[in-house]
Amino acid sequence: MRWAQLKWVLEESGEFPDLQGLDRADERIVTLPDGVDAATYLVKCPNRDVVVKLSSVGLEAEARALRAWRPYTSRVPQVLGLGTMPSTEEPAIKYLILAAVKNDEGEIVETAADYLERSPESAREVGRALGAELHRMHQAVDPMGFGNFADSPGSESTYGSWGAYLEDFFALHADFVRQLSIAEDRIQAVRSHIRACPFVAEGRFVHGDVTVRNVGVHSYRPIAVGLFDPNPVSGDPSWDVAPMTNNVAFNELRHSREGVPPKNLRRDQELLAGFWESYRNELSEDCMLTAQLVQAVLQGEHRQRRLSDNQTDAVDVEVTQEFIRAIMDRMAT
Question: Does the predicted TM-score (pTM) go above 0.90?
Fold first, then answer.
């Protein structure tokens, strides 16, 4: 727990005049599962519950994206405060204060992952709600360009098109692709394909980490959902859809290899089917293939590291690599 930093935010920042006498074991402070870079806490105040995030990167970008989405949906967390703690250290620690997201009963929302664990038959309905919500979020336009922004890593480079951003991104990871015995001419053909894709002309604020763990269930009858904990980027909506499609594709490949369906395969197939029933943006096949490829390369690298640490099995790695080869064949023809 980053107690010293959290204590400063709660007692010295001026953001919490309604809190007094805090200590490390205070029941009003609940440590939440950390994101990739941030330490996250639920703080129970007398008349409100808030979430405090501490990190040296990404919080300004998260706040900017959340504010951009709010005109289109009320189901993203409301930004209450954003600042930097006084320090001589580099990089400085920043704080982001968000209103805790609650459901129609006034309780902290449960994630779609938890809800579907107890109600897997609701997957298609959750998918429909997610498709409608993500469509609303994708209406928010970033006039500043494409790529990473604010204080997210890589924000020093702004691109004039999403294709240029993704081509550079793919090139940075091309050595991993070469390790899969994919020829250089195939790699260059894929880069040409990326450059020719009909991506959106204006950057959209995309969430960047659309999984059921980052979806909150706001109401149950009917199902309504919202997204939180983004890793936002200014780009093409296909970037948010690719992880869901890849997740199903990977597990279908594993099923075909082993003959036994992986856990949650049917649930995720229904979730994706419901998503496409309500997501109204037009996404071209070429754009989707590109997003799926780059996301798969990132997933392949991640799974390779997990295999080295004995945190996954060889089949996970093999099906990801098989998928990468197959999708590159499609893009290069």
Answer: yes
